[in-house]
TrEMBL record:
Organism: Photobacterium rosenbergii
Keyword terms, alphabetized: ATP synthesis, CF(1), Ion transport, Membrane, Transport
Top-rank lineage group of the source organism: Bacteria
Keyword Membrane: yes
Lineage, uppermost ranks: Bacteria, Pseudomonadati, Pseudomonadota, Gammaproteobacteria, Vibrionales
InterPro entries, A to Z: ATP_synth_F1_dsu/esu (IPR001469), ATP_synth_F1_dsu/esu_N (IPR020546), ATPsynth_dsu/esu_N (IPR036771)
Matching Pfam families: ATP-synt_DE_N
Places the protein is found: Endomembrane system
Residues in coiled coil: none
Protein family per UniProt: Belongs to the ATPase epsilon chain family.
Name of the protein described by the UniProt record: ATP synthase epsilon chain
Sequence ranges assigned to domain ATP synthase F1 complex delta/epsilon subunit N-terminal in this UniProt record: 20-80
Amino acid sequence: MKGFVLQLLDATHAEEIIGVTSFVGEDASGSFGLLPGHIRFMTILSTGIAKYRIGDSDWKYLAAPGGVIYFHNNRLTLCTYRFVLDDDYLRISQTLQEQLLGEEKKRQRVKESLHHMEEAILNRLWEMGRR
C-alpha cells in the first residue's frame, strides 16, 4: 500500500514522517481516519492522542494540545503549539497529562499576575483622582 507524508509543525521544531498508511484522530465531530489518496480535508484536531501507522507496523502515537490538520496531495500537515511522539500509549498519555497540567498552572499564574496588575492600576488611578 502506498503511503502519505505526515508533516508535524510546532513552535520549536518540525518533523516529517514518510510512508504513513493510516492516521486516526479526533475533532469536534468525533473520530476520523485518513488513508492515502483521501480527498482534501481540513479540521481542528481536539486535544488528545492521535495515532498513525507506517505500512503494517504497530501504531505510533501523537499527543498534541489541539491543532489544525490539512490533508492535500497525499500530505497531512499538522500545525500545533507542541507535539510529542511515542510508540507506547500509556507513556504518551502520561506525558500529555503532565503537559496539560503544566500549561494549566502557567495559565493560572498569568491570570494571577494580570489580576495584580489590574489592582495596581486601579489603585494608582484612585490615588491620582484624590489629588
